Amino acid sequence: MSLLETITAPADLRALPVERMPELAEEIRSFLVSEVSKTGGHLGPNLGVVELTIALHRVFDSPRDTIVFDTGHQSYVHKLLTGRHDFSKLKKQGGLSGYPNRAESEHDVVENSHASTALSWADGIAKGRRLRGQGQRHTVAVIGDGALTGGMAWEAINNIAVDKTLPLVIVVNDNERSYAPTIGGLAEHLATLRTTRGYERFLAWGKRSLARTPFVGGPVFETLHGVKKGLKDIVAPQGMFEDLGLKYYGPVDGHDEQAVERALRQARDFGGPVIVHVITQKGRGYQPALDDVADHMHGIGKINPETGLPFEVAGRIWTDEFNDEMVRLGAERDDLVALTAAMLIPVGLDGFAAAYPERVFDVGIAEQHAVTMASGLAYAGLHPVVALYATFLNRAFDQMLMDCALHKAGVTFVLDRAGITGSDGASHNGMWDMALMSIVPGLRLAAPRDGDQVRRQLREAVDVTDGPTVIRFPKGDVAEPLEAVRQQGDVDVLFETGSGDVDLLVLGVGAFAGLAVDVGAKVAALGHTVRVVDPRWVLPVSGTVLDLAAQAGAVAVIEDNLVTGGVGAAVTVALREAGQQAPVHLHGIPKRFLHHASRGQLLEELGLTAESIVADLQTRLS
Ligand SMILES: Cc1ncc(C[n+]2csc(CCOP(=O)(O)OP(=O)(O)O)c2C)c(N)n1
Ligand SMILES: CC(=O)[C@@H](O)[C@H](O)COP(=O)(O)O
Ligand SMILES: [Mg+2]
Q: Annotated binding residues for thiamine diphosphate, as ranges?
């Protein structure tokens, strides 16, 4: 039996002699590479936190003490050390979530995979524990250098730093990367702190050599040690944290398990809020990850563990259509600029960045800043394109509403991973954007049905200068081209049984246009007259949709978004405001959080398949 197999709970880990930790770390790394290469997942981030997570669970007594992981994608080692060793269905339905999950373990707290929230969670937990007379229970937040570029983290630090008795340990897991190298002033500050390792080595040398010098050695070392702080402040102004009132320990070699344990014990016993700055390496111990300069295997699909190469070559995805068209547009429009929140490659701006590096802004994991900064760029006469994952726009809704829309800023938002993504769990589904955007005055939203429409609608969007425009498309392979049989106003007609009135008008939103045609054909085969359309610009509801609805006995709207407040709801309101009484049947995502599973499994479960929708419509059509 391997050492790892003997660990079913943190107590088993703490019972082991510290000398066996390198052996355990080696076993864990081998496990991660062999298992995650079979399933896909966040291999790089977890390889970087092996010793750190071992030390955390040796120093703190979870779940009596609470360990919170920011973003949570780096919690695989935590799962192993809390007894979860079956990674065979990682991120798959019925298997382990790729993030902390309370249903899996009492050791898991924050399931939300949106970055920069851990310090706020920890602030609340620590203060709550103290209020309830449990101040002896420690709270630890592990936050990456990338997540630390998120504004919310600094809101929390501002509150934590002034509370001198708060038993809260902040572990900054500094591997110098989000996906790409971490950007901004904080990253530079952390970099200067990292150089103090030179000082640590210098001081360690000083201690050894001076300690051997009789009489003068000790006092001289103490003087040197006193100078250390000054020197550090000169070269490595760690003062930022200490000036805020936070005790700072570090930088600590995050792969020296005993050093991390020592630092964590000091921090635990300090009796107030403390930052432990740990230097780690993303992808540590696995050369293909270290050689992956893009993102050190931040997130992978199935790979050959020997070579690190993917088994399947990815097809053309929706993101590629955006990526390529942005490069073409950039050549035609010198007013076009682009913004990303630490995800340049995942959102498809790497092409534009390579061609026009001075016209791309990576703001770090700071979506709120990106949206308002874009409003400023528009005010300065540029046309910004803000590329985000749909779910991450949620946190910048007020900036969209009050900075962008209120000021009629000509900003284009491109939302990737819109709709159900599935395997990353509830917080990663891009299922709220159209509901949120439907209440923003002056906003126009397009949902392309294929690659051609991505290109066309992106071009239409960047021509709009008097308000925000949004283009949203899902994760994965781009849909096959779907030609319109004719246009009617600004709507593409995709299928119809005849030119006159119909029993049913089906609106297929974006990537669901193909599904809508499938539904229409099946309903027609049941003897009904049908028309299937792609409204293209789905918000606000166009007059052409109202005209088409006036020619139908009923309307069905099929969308990869929350039904509540979605396009179907907007169509219903528009019809009623126009005095039209046709029933509207809504097919979309119900208002609940979705467990992790594949996109296909969730669509099946939610009845978002042609068979399910037709069966439902059949009961409703007279
Ligand atoms: C609000 C938000 N924006 C973007 C992301 C996408 N994302 C996931 S992990 C990650 C990088 C995190 O970097 P860091 O915190 O340094 O952790 P590391 O992966 O380096 O361990 C990003 C940008 C996210 N999860 N949440
Ligand atoms: C943890 C996180 O937010 C990202 O790493 C996310 O998991 C990436 O998702 P995609 O795999 O869809 O790019
Ligand atoms: Mg990082």
A: 73, 113-115, 146-147, 175, 286, 367
Out of 389, 416, 427, mutate this one to test ligand 2's pocket (max ligand atoms within 8 Å of CB): namely: 389
How far the first Cα of the chain sits from its last, in Å, is: 66
Looking at 58, 79, 395, 472, which residue is catalytic?
Answer: 395
Q: CB–CB of 383/401 below 8 Å?
A: no
Determine how many CB atoms are found less than 10 A away from the CB of residue 316. Answer: 11
Token pair recorded at residue 577? 């405001």
Strands 360-362 and 168-174: unpaired
Q: How many CA atoms lie within 13 A of 9 on its CB side?
A: 8
Distances (CA, A) of 532 to 235, 388, 443, 508: 66, 30, 25, 7
Report whether residue 114 contacts ligand 2, using a CB cutoff of 6 Å.
no
Fold for 4-196+237-290, please state it: Rossmann fold (3.40.50)
Which residue is catalytic, options 84, 268, 282, 522? 282
CATH class for the domain made up of 491-621: alpha beta
Query: Could you tell which of 367, 424, 596 is best to mutate to test the pocket of ligand 2, judged by most ligand atoms within 8 Å of the CB?
Result: 424
Q: What is the mean pLDDT of the chain?
A: 94
- Say what the pTM is: 0.94
Per residue in 572-605, pLDDT (tens digit) is: 999 999 999 999 999 999 999 999 999 999 999 9
Tell me if domain 4-196+237-290 and domain 318-472 are identical in fold.
yes
Which phi and psi (to 5°) does residue 412 adopt?
A: -105, 130
The topology (CATH level 3) of 318-472 is Rossmann fold (3.40.50)
Question: Is residue 178 within 6 Å of ligand 1 at its C-beta?
Answer: yes
Residues at the annotated binding site?
73, 113-115, 145-147, 175, 286, 367
Q: pLDDT grade, residue 610 (50/70/90)?
A: very high
Which ligand is nearest to the Cα of residue 341, counting in written order? 1
Phi then psi dihedrals of residue 512, to 5 deg: -85, 5
Provide the pLDDT confidence category of residue 245 given band limits of 50, 70 and 90. Answer: confident
Question: Where do the structural domains in the chain lie, given as residue ranges?
Answer: 4-196+237-290, 197-236, 318-472, 491-621
Confidence bin at 234 (pLDDT 50/70/90): very low
**pLDDT of 24-71, one tens digit each?**
999 999 999 999 999 999 999 999 999 999 999 999 999 999 999 999
Residue 46 beta carbon below 6 angstroms from any ligand 2 atom: no
Q: Would you state the pLDDT for residue 381?
A: 98
Strand order in the sheet with 274-279: 66-69, 139-144, 168-174, 274-279, 247-253
| Percent residues over pLDDT 90 in the chain | 89
Respond yes or no: is residue 367 known to be catalytic.
yes
For ligand 2, whether the C-beta of 475 sits within 6 Å is yes
Six token digits for residue 328: 């073409």
The verdict on ipTM greater than 0.90 is yes
Tell me if 417 CB under 6 Å of ligand 2: yes
Ligand lying closest to the C-alpha of residue 48: 1
